[in-house]
Amino acid sequence: MKITLLLIALLCAAPALAAPGTKRILGVGDGGTGAEAASAARSNLGAASRGANSDITSINGLTMPLSTGQGGTASATGDLSAMTATVNVLRGYGALPAPVCNGAADDRTALRAIITAAAGNARVLIPASVTCRADLLTLPSNSHLTVDGTLKAPDGIVQTVIQIGSGASNVVIDGSGVIDGNRNNTTGANGAAGGISSGPTASNVQIRGVTIQGARMWPLNLVGVSGCSVTDVTMRDSTNSAEFAAGSNNCWASRLKISNIDNDGSFVFYKGVWNSGITDSVIEGGFVSGIGVYNDNDTQTLSHDLVIANNILRGNGRVGLEVSVGTRTDQTRNHYNIKIKDNVLVGNGTQNLSLGDIALSAIERSDISGNSSFSYGGASTSPAIKIALGANALTIENNKIFNPGPGGASGVCFQFAPGTTAERWIIRNNTCIDNQETRTVAYGFLGKIPTKSQVHDNRVINTIGGFGPLSEGSSLAFGWKGQISNSDQIAALNYHTSTKRTTALQMRGDTDSVSIGGIEGSPKTITLSTEDGDNAGKIVVNGALHHGGAAWIDPINHTEDNTAVVSAGRDNATLINTTLIPAFTVLIPPLTGANGQIFRLSSDGGVTSMTVKDSDGNSISGSPTTLAAGVGRTFLSDGSAWHVQ
């Protein structure tokens, strides 16, 4: 009896249940939703569209982070990677209405409200196949915006599309969609308008995957950001550069695709950026440069500790890569500690302005290595690597340059124009090649070299004008007064900082001759090793070799008895006589060698009757009997006789 009464009481206390087939809707007070449709139910309950416990909008005073099952991120650090709740903007957010996103309506108010409310709570998604029209979408801290559709600025007064808030941290912008600045349908001052911009002092920013196009100014303008990564982003058809700017640090860009930037560099480190870089990116078709490190003047904060590596720079108008400042008042103020390495530059300089494929004028304490330049410039003087003005303390090595100056005959691999403060350039192990059927490279090197510099072990192959003319940049810097040859060559250069130590070895392909030359006719002598055995210095001529001693030439004054004794160890004697000698006898020292050796005689004024004997006075078969004035005679010995050459 007690059990029966208990069941009756429970049934009376329970809300009425609708019988099968009835249309009754339970009210909120009865434990129902008070609505037939799910959207109305969410509105009645004030619930979010998705996520566990999604009707909870805020909880204060928690000492432990909410788990993902509770609708939280399970993170006490604000790490957005743990955020799993997603707000599809087409469904609204809580009581906030959804934007229309039909490509025509103004969606600014709805999107701004959803982004602000979702920060720290959920990822905001603009889904694929829709176009939302909005700008000035400001992302506060702990925001995650995914653009899989199109986010396009409205027509009218230009504004930036997405703005990372001043001081905001932990911001993610990603997706496979498009951020469109709509530059052809906007008006007004450019200001900071762009695709994605930041306020100062933002931190921990991630941008990945999206395409940014049609920006009235900067497709990407990150100012004063500490810690950011930009990866797999495409930027195209915009007015100004993508840039890290004005105090940004620890910012890294990789795998970017940038094309058709109308003004300034395509990607720029601007006005004081440090500990940052760009790698593994393809940049093409820019009006000015592919990559630039720029200031407006040298009083602004300088950039330093940058990495520019493994990029492809192609078809940019003025230069491929540039490090400079605008107005210069002090050539000692330069960007510094920059690594420019392993980049490939192809067909830049389409405007034919002779600025340089790699143009360095405000840089110091930096390395430029492993880069390859192909076909820079046009018919005017087109330097592949141009170093000028305050450039200082540079190491430029292992770069390869091919065919600068297409369409003309004025290409240059290296052009030097140092300022008064420049010094300490190391230029080594670089290769300059002209491998075209019709050559375009006038010189391997052109210009001045500054003090305390080294230029050595560079190769210049098949250029029109050889290494080219280099001049003295200071009392300790020496180059060529003029070019060494004007025909095919394979050449190697050694340069030292002490007086008259610039030398070049050059082979002429048309005559199979070798030239050795340097400033003012140096070297005047060549000293070979005096070691014994295989380490001994030697010159081989047609199979006969010459062993070098401490000196080669024995200058012999004309004596009354018309007899000269060549000093031991000498194998090159010059008779010093201003008038013709009627008769002369020369005693030469022993010259030994199983493979034959060389001895050479010359006379300033000439000898009409000459006798050559060994040091014991024995005649030597095959010796010359005359010497023309200023003409040397060379003998090859096979061990028993001399053969005049």
UniProtKB/TrEMBL annotation:
UniProt signal peptide: 1-18
Protein name: Right handed beta helix region
Keywords: Signal
Entries under InterPro entries matching the protein: PbH1, Pectin_lyas_fold, Pectin_lyase_fold/virulence
Signal in keyword set: yes
Highest taxon above the source species: Bacteria
